[in-house]
Each structure stands twice: as C-alpha cells, then as structure tokens.
Target: Glucose-6-phosphate 1-dehydrogenase
Amino acid sequence: MNNDNRTYCSIVIFGATGDLANRKLFPSIYSLYKKGKLNENFSVIGVARRELDNEAFRNNVRTSIQESKIELVDNVETFLSHFHYVSFDVTDKQHYQDLNMLLHDLEGQFNIPGNRMFYMAMAPEFFGTIASYLKSEGVTNDQGWNRLIIEKPFGHDLPSAQKLNNDIREAFQEDEIYRIDHYLGKAMVQNIEVIRFANAIFEPLWNNRYISNIQITSSESLGVEDRGGYYDQAGALRDMVQNHMLQMVSLLAMEPPISLTTEEIRSEKIKVLRAIKRMTVDEVDQYFVRGQYDEGNIYGKDVPAYRSENKVDPQSNTETFVAGKLSINNFRWAGVPIYIRTGKRMTEKSTKVVIQFKELPMNLYYKSEDNMHPNLLIIHIQPDEGISIVLNGKKLNIPGETTPVKLDYCNNCLDESNNPEAYEKLLYDAILGDSTNFTHWDEVALSWQFVDTIYKAWENNKVSDFPNYRSGTMGPKVADDLLAEDGFHWWPILDDSDYSI
Ligand code: NAD
Model:
C-alpha cells in the first residue's frame, strides 16, 4: 500500500453522470486504487443535475468500471464507499455551501488534509460560473491545495479562450489550473521526448540537414456519433488541430530542454509555437485544406454523409477533415515542411508520426526515382504503440537491387495490462501536482492565434464542393495535392503497409 500523503485528496467531479466521467474518470480512479497508487485517504464527490442517492451513484460507478473491462477485485466495495453524490445545479450558489459541508465531513472521515481537486467534466459554458462560485462560497480553501482540471474545448477562438481564462483565473492561479489535452497522456506521445533525447542515433539527425519532411496523421473511422450538436459548431480544426495536433508538433520540434522540469519543457514547447510561421488570411489556402465526409463504407458497413448525421445542419459547411503544411522558422527547422492531417470517417483509426529522412548525396544503389526508398521513422501513437524504422536492405538473389526493410518495436505488445490509459496517467499527475503534461495558458493562446487566422479565411471563403471525400477513404484529393506540390506523398497508415514508393 502506498503511503504517499501527496495523494490524500478529495476529487469533486462536476458532470458525474456524463459520458466522460463514466467512460474515463471512474475507471481511471479505480485503476489507481487497484494499483495502490491511491490509498484509503481519498473521497470522490460526484456532482450533476440528476437526482441520485449514494447507492445508485456507486452502482453507476461499478457499472462503468465493469464496462471499461478493468477486472473488479474484492476491495471494490471499500473503494466505492469513498464515492458520494450531490444533486446540484451549478448555477445555484446555495449548492456550493452544501458541497463545502460535505467536503469537510469527508475530510474528517477519510483523514484528508483539505486537498481539493475540482474536475470540470461538463459543458464549457459552465466553467467560469463554477470557478467563481467555488471561490466566493469558500469551497476553495486554504487548508491544503486546490486544483482545477479543465477539459477541452478551452474556448472556441482566442477572445473566448481569453475570457474563459480570465474567469477561472479569478479563482485559481495559473499553477493550480490543469488544462487537459489527453494526447499528452498517451504513452507514445510522452515517448517522443525519450526517443529524441535519449538516442544518439536520432538526435544528431533531428534537423533540416537530414529530415526532408514530417507527417502527422490522426484519423478516426468513427463519424460524429451522438456529438453532432457540438461538432457542427466546432469542426476538425478546433476539435483536433488547435490542441492535439499542435501539441504533437511542439514535442517533435522543440529544442532539448536544459532539464526535465515542467518549466523547462514548457518553455521549449512554447518557443516552437511562437516559431510556427504565421499566415495572412489570404495565404491560408496555400497551406491548409479542408474536407467533409460523404456517405461511404467502413469495415464493410454503409455509413451516412456528415450532412445526414443527427443534429447536423443538412447544409453544414463544417469541416470534418483538415490537412495543412506548417513551417517552423528557426535554425533547426527552416525548410522542413511539417504536414498534419486529421479527420473523421477515414479508412482506419490511427495516430502516427512519420519522419522522412533525406536521401544520401550519392547512393550507389540509386537507379531511378522508383527504386529509392527514403529512411522513415514511424512513431505509432494509437491504437498500436511503438516505433518502426524503414531501412534499405538487399533484395535476395538480385544483385544491386534494394528493398525496404521494416524494423518494428511494439510498446503495448509487451505488457498491455501495465500500460495505463491517458486519463489515468494525467489524473495521477494532477494529484501529485505535476503539470508537465497539461497545457499552459501561453500554449493555448498561441495555438488559438494560429488557428483563428485559418477560420477567418474559411469564413470569408465558403466551400462549394462539400462533401468532398467518401467515408472510408483518407480524405479529399486536395490533401494529397498539398504534398504533391512539394514532391512528397502521404505515407500509408496501415501497419502491414508496403512502404515501397
Ligand atoms: P455529457 O453531456 O455526457 O455530461 C454532462 C454532465 O454535466 C452531466 O453529468 C450533467 O448532469 C451535467 N450538467 C449539465 N448541466 C448541469 C448543471 N446546470 N448543473 C449540474 N450539472 C450539470 O458531457 P461529456 O461528454 O461527459 O463531456 C464533458 C466535458 O468534457 C465537455 O466539456 C466535453 O467537451 C469534454 N470532453 C468530453 C470527452 C468525452 O469523451 N466525452 C472527451 C474530451 C472532452
């Protein structure tokens, strides 16, 4: 059993009957408890509108753990006894005082020294209200630490993000705010720094002398499912690029930090975001393209067009796909395009980074463009986790002929049971007060600044060809053209892919 008293805390989950709490948060808390990372000195208070008693709430928590496929062990009833529920309207001041009393009671019962974590697992329009009432009604206290975990979307453009930030900063200091980007909890995203900074065979090559381009793909096979209402207002650029994609760019491109502290890593990531070449509104179309899915077929099943999805405007101009070309204006990266693409209803669910190295100046095996195989480093982020390296080897029995050889390392093949989910890792980091893998306000602001220009251009210039890609494909042709103009092509995302050109 862990006796680390840094984990002694109360966790208040706003939105405890919602999808995020049930699919991610409850299983993560149970997994931490099962592994002994949380001991008996904690409580969880679920807050939501629905009327529920503690018993019904605990049953929901048990069901959500069972559905997550985490095996329940004998101590589950003791675990569940830490969970309490309050039916709550977050806009009603009085309810915060009731919450405060319950927190005090549970702190006494479980011997918790006043540490309080507030998790906003509900719609963002309430974040500011909740934060200000937590402060005005004295729920944030001075007996222990107070931490606020906040979900995406963090605003829908820079001005709204700035307003939200000002609202929550009235009640919480920057170092008490943990802005979740769950990609930063993924094992292989965290591994990017290790691959780069702990391997002599990569870091010396990690620059514009040896790398020809970088490709980051995050594709989903699902459509908008039951999130049509939210998604039609957001689109792929806000939902994926502003946060996850730009975070991956900054980890791939940052300079080695002088140490592994939160501040040093952040400061290097922020420098990358500042160095991304800004576009004018008129230049956006040269660098960014968008798409929207039509009907099609995925895994043998016919699926509808985006415009026919539930709660989506039948004339919608919202993009479900984005591809773009970024340039980083600094000494290391000048001249190396970083291509990103993300979308829904694509061929396969997959997040991958492909680093394509430059050709050797005089390759003795070069015969024509067709037999040249660039070296690739592929970082598989999800669903499989690992790295592959594509090298040139000799084609058996054919003198002078080469063939691509792929070396694979699979991270989650080794011991999947020990590989915690992103939310579990991030929740644990926040409990311990480690904010390295959370986004700082400066990162959020710089990302919105970049993305807002693209939206301005797109708002002025409505599309006429939507839908422009069939479900089950890798997006519209314009995304291929973006690379073809530079003499490149997207590398395949399937794991058994043939990397021949
Ligand atoms: P949800 O709609 O399933 O749940 C919303 C919760 O908020 C419910 O528990 C509801 O009772 C509660 N609620 C709503 N109005 C309330 C009020 N006035 N007072 C008290 N409680 C109220 O939403 P979700 O999918 O769980 O998402 C929650 C947040 O997390 C959102 O900001 C969302 O964008 C973000 N998010 C969700 C996911 C996901 O996988 N579901 C992923 C990333 C981010």
Remarks:
- The chain has a mean pLDDT of 93.
